[in-house]
């Protein structure tokens, strides 16, 4: 079956612009996670969704970052007024339930000029 | 804040050599996971260890979870060029209803033919 997909795969934007990153989880997976990965580094947790609710938003770095999930499926991560330090790979993962194995998408590489 | 220290950060070896990657923390984790990530892709789960002292083998890879569940190691025997990639350890925090993962910084392994 299809895995987790993310779009776009690459995004180049200018400082101060808003960006939207999309994640399509595996069908039937109720849990969805967003992570950020700096070049060659480990992953930093951003937010966790169970269904359409986000019980843990503790990893969002600032109020410029927000995320939503609709229909218990697609999720969008929005970064407003992007800064150069936002440049990173943004990864999405989904799992059947909250405690199950997480399956990762290929990520969106964001570059802020 | 729970931290996972992973070492070494970089490892460059010749085909046929053995290597060990370490993952250490002052915190106790309910489980410890190891992932491998290739360029342009998301991390892929290799193994999960849950019991202190547990040892798991996956072909030429041996994973160990420390007795106190604070540390783990990944040993690769007779490394091959196909083992090249970013290896990540991730600890799962207990006491939550979902698999919140704390990642180490990663080890970039290069195996030369």
What key attributes describe this structure?
heterodimer, A: 113 residues, mainly beta, 7-stranded mixed beta sheet, 4-stranded antiparallel beta sheet, B: 113 residues, 6-stranded mixed beta sheet, 5-stranded antiparallel beta sheet, 11 strands, 0% helix
Question: What does it look like?
Answer:
The complex is a heterodimer of chains A (113) and B (113). Chain A is an all-beta fold. Chain A has no helices and 11 strands. In chain A, strand 7 (65-69) and strand 8 (75-79) form a beta hairpin. Chain A starts with a strand and ends with a strand. In chain A, 34% of the residues are buried. Chain B is an all-beta fold. Helix content of chain B is 0%, strand content 52%. Chain B is built from no helices and 11 strands. In chain B, strands 2, 4, 5, 9, 10 and 11 form a 6-stranded mixed sheet that branches. A 5-stranded antiparallel sheet of chain B has the order 1-3-8-7-6, with no helix packed on it. In chain B, strand 9 and strand 10 form a beta hairpin. Chain B is globular and about 45 Å long. The mean pLDDT of chain B is 92. The interface between A and B is medium-sized, with 26 and 24 residues.
